[in-house]
Design goal:
By secondary structure, this protein is α/β, with parallel strands linked by helices. The protein has a domain of 132 residues: Alpha-Beta Barrel (TIM Barrel), CATH 3.20.20.70. Helix content is 40%, strand content 13%. Strands 2-1-11-10-9-6-5-4-3 form a nine-stranded parallel sheet. A two-stranded antiparallel ribbon has the order 7-8. Strand 4, helix 4 and strand 5 form a beta-alpha-beta unit. The longest helix is centred in the last third of the chain and has 15 residues. The structure holds magnesium ion (MG). The site of magnesium ion (MG) has 5 residues, from loops.
């Protein structure tokens, strides 16, 4: 155990007082595991994350079992978790059938998954970039009737493994359309982890200029090139206060080349604790959870904080 097991607290100007961490480990993380995780373990994972104080724990997906067999037990997971009042448990849905299954499982929040680029839209959604909205429109219409908030994930916001760097105006177009069609907020995915802080600030500024306020923007960074925390700090300095992360850094993307490693939640909490920014998360409980999951998965924890503290 390192003699330093807590960051020193020194604040900086021009940062939010609090950050909402949108935990994606049980969904984004586990869907990319090669093996199938037992339902009871998923439930325990979500309950432990809840107990660590995370305000949002994305729980599962309601997608075709043959497409993502790792999350075929979405209904059982939603039925088995201990929901805490005030904590949100969003689920990913690709279509109205998925939405109906999510509602039956008493999901109160959903998310849809869009692409900023043509190639990824074709590969991941089987649609052209311009046609992807036709896929979401019935989901968004129905969610609006049922008053269910919908988050719009936008992948490949900064770089695409087939197309190279992404023109931010294309990302803005997709985000504006998602919001106009009823998404309550958008999450900007750096799916292959190539973004740098200037790009982050540029895109956020462009979104704000297009009428999407910072309160509706989340950032979803991958640490493939070691940039996730730098990019997060740039987003916070740009006014964003919702940050996606995955306990233990689990998850990548099965359809994207070299898309490794979501930003690890404990690495994020270490930085935010150090800056004196309130997250509501108990770092000890979170690290214990990530180490517990790593042991279950049979490999070392991916996060830097987890590794530093488990030596
Ligand atoms: Mg991710």
């Amino acid at each position: 155990m390192s003699p330093v097991h807590r960051p020193s607290r020194v604040s900086m100007d021009n940062l939010p007082d609090r950050v909402r961490i949108w935990e994606v480990g049980p969904r984004d993380g586990l869907q990319n595991e090669a093996s199938i995780i037992e339902t009871a373990t998923k439930i325990e994972f979500i309950n432990r994350l809840t107990d660590s104080g995370l305000p949002v724990v994305e729980a599962t997906s309601f997608v075709r079992a043959d497409r993502i067999p790792q999350l075929a037990d979405g209904a059982e997971v939603m039925a088995g978790i201990s929901r805490r009042a005030g904590t949100r448990y969003p689920v990913l849905v690709p279509n109205v059938k998925g939405l109906e299954a999510a509602v039956t499982a008493d999901a109160k929040d959903i998310a849809v998954f869009a692409s900023a680029t043509e190639t990824f839209a074709q590969r991941n959604l089987g649609r052209s970039r311009s046609n992807q909205m036709e896929m979401f429109a019935p989901v968004l219409d129905r969610a609006c009737v049922d008053q269910i908030p919908v988050r719009g994930y936008v992948s490949m916001c900064f770089g695409d493994p087939w197309e190279g760097f992404v023109d931010p105006s294309r990302v803005v177009d997709v985000c504006v359309e998602l919001v106009e069609r009823g998404c309550s907020d958008v999450s900007l995915g750096d799916t292959i982890g190539v973004a740098t802080p200037g790009q982050v600030r540029q895109l956020i500024n462009m979104l704000v200029a297009a009428g999407i306020g910072v309160e509706r923007i989340g950032v979803h960074f991958h640490d493939t090139y070691g940039q996730a925390l730098s990019n997060t700090l740039a987003a916070l300095q740009s006014g964003v206060w919702t940050v996606d992360a995955s306990a233990g850094g689990i998850g990548g993307c099965p359809y994207a080349i070299s898309a490794t490693g979501n930003l690890a939640t404990e690495d994020l909490v270490w930085m935010l604790d150090g800056l004196g920014i309130d997250t509501g998360v108990d770092l000890d409980k979170l690290i214990t959870t990530s180490l517990w999951l790593a042991e279950y998965l049979g490999r070392p924890v991916q996060s830097r904080v987890g590794r530093a503290l488990s030596k």
